[in-house]
Amino acid sequence: MGGVSRASLDKQPHEVAAMFDGVAAKYDLTNDVLSLGLTRLWRKEVARAVAARPGERVLDLAAGTGTSSLPFLAAGAYVVPCDFSLGMLREGKRRHPRLPLTAGDATRLPFADGVFDAVTISFGLRNVQDTQGALREMLRVTRPGGRIVICEFSHPTWEPFRTVYTEYLMRALPPIATSVSSNPDAYVYLAESIRAWPDQPGLAARLRSAGWERPAWRDLTSGVVALHRAYKP
């Protein structure tokens, strides 16, 4: 970890990578606990939105340990899980030795142009320093007519619930993380980065600006999470 226990909101890549290296062993368990088990529901909705078909090539960015890639594999697609945390990839290789886990930076993807039918990223775009650069890179490696699906924390649509949710993020989440995570300070960053992330129309605008067409979104859990989908022209 080199003394880094959490990343700052300017999202220096070495800080973010080190932070995720430090939480790799218990990352999936911690997410299940903090989301009250909702991560499993959200993964099912991502798989439904991607709608991978047999023989398609799917790039799963910020794949971490590879758990998010398993539904695409089960659908018969060829999936490439990609992450820039080597600690996450090592843990993923231990759990899923047959997955082609690949090290890569979302802003400089190690793939040729137009090779994927679909690109997806769940709870990872928020951690990339150059969001627009990453969205343009995803566009580059997607074939014409291909799709992007982004699953990310967002802004609850009902004002009273939004207030309760914000209080949970800033007050309850770090103490809960302390009891289950190998690096609870990382979840302070998690809470701060969620608050700073754009709302649903804001992310749709970023997709359009990066060259994606027909961006649309669907709220999950009252807008705690939003699924965005768009297409390459």
Q: Give the percentage of residues in beta strands.
A: 15-25%
Cα-atom Rg, whole angstroms? 17 Å
What's the total count of β strands? 7
**Remind me, CATH topology?**
Rossmann fold
Can you characterise this structure?
The structure is a single chain. The chain is of the alpha/beta class and 233 residues long. The protein has a single domain, classed as Rossmann fold, CATH 3.40.50.150. Helices cover 44% and strands 20% of the residues. The protein has 9 helices and 7 strands. A 7-stranded mixed beta sheet has the order 3-2-1-4-5-7-6, sandwiched between helices. β6 and β7 form a beta hairpin. The radius of gyration is 17 Å and the shape is globular. It starts with 12 loop residues before the first helix and ends with a strand. 46% of the residues are buried. The N terminus is likely disordered. It catalyses: a 2-demethylmenaquinol + S-adenosyl-L-methionine = a menaquinol + S-adenosyl-L-homocysteine + H(+). It is an enzyme of class 2 (transferase). This is Demethylmenaquinone methyltransferase.
Secondary structure blueprint with pairings:
Elements: H1 13-23, H2 27-34, H3 38-50, E1 57-61, H4 70-74, E2 78-83, H5 86-95, E3 102-103, E4 116-122, H6 131-141, E5 142-153, H7 159-180, H8 185-196, H9 200-209, E6 213-220, E7 225-231
Parallel strand pairs: 1-2, 1-4, 2-3, 4-5
Antiparallel strand pairs: 5-7, 6-7
Binding site for S-adenosyl-L-methionine: 65, 83, 105-106, 122
Keywords: Menaquinone biosynthesis, Methyltransferase, S-adenosyl-L-methionine, Transferase
GO molecular function, one term: demethylmenaquinone methyltransferase activity
